[in-house]
Amino acid sequence: MDLLLAEILRERTYHAWFDDGHCGDNLSWAVACVSGAQESLSRLSTIVRGAVEPIRESGIEWKDISGDSTRTNAAVALVTSVISAVTDLKVRIDVLHWSVLDSRHAVSNRDDSENLGMMYYKLILDVARRTTRWVWHIHLDAGSNFSSYRLHKYLSGRDIGSLSSRYPTIFAGGGILSPSLGLTIEKIDENSSGSEALGWVSDIFAGLAHFSRSNPRAVRHVLSEPDGARRKQVCLDGFSLDLTRGEKGKARVLASLRRVSRERSLGVSLGSKRMLWTPNPSQPINFWPYEAQHPDDKAPQRNRAGKEADLEPDWEP
Questions:
Q1: Residue 261: in which H helix or E strand, if any?
Q2: pLDDT 10s digits, 69-114
Q3: Torsion over CA of 183, 98, 116 and 292, rounded to 10 degrees?
Q4: How far is residue 313 CA from its own chain's centroid?
Q5: Where are the domains of the chain?
Q6: How many C-beta neighbours within 10 Å does residue 74 have?
Q7: CATH architecture of residue range(s) 11-289
Q8: Mean pLDDT in the chain?
C-alpha cells in the first residue's frame, strides 16, 4: 500500500493556459482556461497551428476578427479543430463569464482588476475540483490586469478533495486516513497569448463567451441559422445587415462553435439563456455564466480615493 500511495502522489503536473477579455463597453467579461496533460496540450497546439496555417506566424485573437475573410476563416478553423479534438485528447476548455450589471457586480466603485483576479480564482478551483488534479502549472497572458502573486497566495493549499474520494477502491474498508488534498501551484508564468497557439484558443473562447452576452442581435442570427442545403448560401451572403462587418465575422465563429458542438453532442447551449452555457459542466467544453453564489457574494470595491480598501476582500467562491 505504501508503494501504491507513493505512485498516486507522484501525479504529473496539470497544465492550464488562461486568457481573459471583455466587450468594447466593458459590460461583459470572460476568463477562459484550456487545461490538460502536457502531452495532450502539445498535440492540441500542433493541431491548432495546422488549422490556421495562413496566419500561423502572427496568430489569431478575438480582437483581430474585424470582418476580413482570412482571419474570420482562421478563427472558424481554430474553433472547429479544437472542438473536434478535445474529447480524444482529454483536454478541457472552461470559460467563466459575467455581466457587470448583475447583482454581484453592480456595486459602486467596483475594482475590476481585483475582481478579475477573484474570477480567475473561482474558475481554477472549479476546474481543479472537477478534474481532480492538484499539482498545477498555470500559464497566464502577460497582458492580464490583476495580481498573479495574490492568485498564487489564495490558491496554494486550497482543499480540492481527499484521497479516499479520489481513489475509492483503494481506500475502501476504512482504517486508512484520507487527508485533504491541497492545491499545489508548481509554477505561474506569463506569456504573450499572441505567440502561443494555446493562448489563441483561450483568447478566442473567452471572446466567444463575452460576445454571446453582449450582442443579442448576433445570437438571434446564429440561432436562426438554417440546417442542410441553405447553410452554404448563408455563409456566402453573411448575416443580416444590422450587424457590423466585424460582428458578422464574429457571428460566423459563434455559429461554427454551436454547429460543431451539436454535431459532437457536447451539450453547449446558446438558445436556453441566449448566451453560451453548458448545463452539464462535466462536459469537456464548459461555459459557465456566473451568478452570485450567496447574498454576500459581491465584487470588490475601491475606497473613495481610488485605492484598494484596507481589508483584503474575501476571495472565497
A1: helix 245-263
A2: 999 999 999 999 999 999 999 999 999 999 999 999 999 999 999 9
A3: -60
A4: 23
A5: 11-289
A6: 25
A7: 2-Layer Sandwich (3.30)
A8: 85
